[in-house]
Amino acid sequence: MTTARAVIDLDVPGEVISRHLYGHFAEHLGRCIYGGFWVGEDSPIPNVRGIRSDVVEALRALGIPNLRWPGGCFADDYHWRDGIGPRESRPTMVNTHWGDVVENNHFGTHEFMDLCDLLGADAYVNGNVGSGTVREMSEWVEYLTRDGDSPMARLRRENGRDEPWKVPFWGIGNEAWGCGGNMTAQQYALEARRYATYCRNHGGNELYRIAAGASDDDTAWTRALMESLGCLTCGSNPTPLFQGVSFHYYSHAGAGINTESATSFTEEEFYGTMRKALEVERVIRRHEAVMDSYDPDRKVGLILDEWGTWWNVEPGTNPGFLFQQNTVRDALVAAVHFDAFHRHAGRLKMANIAQTLNVLQAMILTDDSGAMVLTPTYHVFEMNRGHHDATALAAHVLQTPTAAGDVPGLSVSASTRDDGALVSLSNLSIDQALHVQVDLRGRGASVRRARVLTGADAAAHNTPEAPDAVAPVELDASLQNGVLSVTLPPHSFATVELDLA
């Protein structure tokens, strides 16, 4: 067994960790919407107005803060008017991005907003820039959010909804450098300004407009967007045309996305995945540096609205549906991402894991028989719920063994709220237990509860036959003379809840 040491300053508060860093993403892709969230009102699977009840209950337990929809690449092929009105009258469409399947548009605007209401989540609607028009997007905003008498408000009422909805977050296209139009950064920056102008605030609904940003660490794209906003430090209080800039970042073992197995991997591939996941902090820093040079007051937020692992699909499934299993390795990818998010909460304002159900690094896996499985990644979200809207604490690793040469054995972050604190700890060694000593400074503390998440090996995962193969269990934790001591099994994630004096 090896030893790691860390220090947490309980009396040195940092930035508030927005709950929206624990956001989710639901695209019309594979079985995320149809067969995942949406089973239809006539399904034998228990549902509320066609929305699967056990899925809603499980996600409510996470305190899901926001849900991004309808894509992804699908968003720039989606025309919202096809998804309103009587379902039997809605036109079909071909989902050319994901499986080339025909969908019936039974899940549209009203169904999505109903889902958000059931979840208690804010809506993040992604508009169509790639194949849509400014007018189409402007009218969608009006349809959703305008009260009183207007053409789109009347149309909404004709379709059964009197009151407008609150839609806080609005995406101006998706991956405009690729599936969203194959634009240059300068070309898209001009389009983003134009579209943002016509995405209006109606009544009391104030939009947080999110410009489609870079892939990975393409800071030239971020620079072009920030330059397009003009001087954000001139005048008394200049308001940016868009309030957020996104980027996307996926993890893999080294060979690239969609090339490696989710459940069969070597030790080298395990550490390659950890290395790639840890790199997200460097990528965040690079985008932050560019944004800070234009926006030192941080009026514009950085948004990571797609992140997670991307493996080969499970054998025998449609390659276009991106259905993959979810292991302890994936849970650790989530854990180290959250540690980085907490450290950069001053600029990073939202993150959305890809995706919520049955696609990529999902929270939940379902099937048509009614089975539902909570994944290891789901449990990381649940164990970390105490970080939502809490204040980040200064947490430093003083000593840690390394794995595979350059992967640190320990990752840590912490936050405080209401005379309590939550400490998150990850052992990134695939085969070595880790004894962790954390020096808690500045305030007295006592342990309220400690839990750990791991499996028989790093490839362990949950199935309908073994739904709790990877699930949190109680962990022994002691606190003496201000030093918190825990022993973490190999490949494990733990949280320690503290009461502060």
UniProtKB/TrEMBL annotation:
Highest taxon of source: Bacteria
Identify which top EC class this enzyme belongs to. hydrolase
The answer to whether the entry has keyword Hydrolase is: yes
Which family is annotated?
A: Belongs to the glycosyl hydrolase 51 family.
Q: Which Pfam families match?
A: Alpha-L-AF_C (PF06964), ASD1_dom (PF22848)
Q: What is this protein called?
A: non-reducing end alpha-L-arabinofuranosidase
Q: Catalysed reaction(s)? A: Hydrolysis of terminal non-reducing alpha-L-arabinofuranoside residues in alpha-L-arabinosides
The Alpha-L-arabinofuranosidase C-terminal domain extends over 305-492
Subunit comment: Homohexamer; trimer of dimers.
Q: What is its EC number?
A: 3.2.1.55
Provide the alphabetized UniProt keywords. Answer: Carbohydrate metabolism, Glycosidase, Hydrolase
The record ties this protein, via InterPro entries, to: Alpha-L-AF_C, ASD1_cat, GH, Glyco_hydro_b
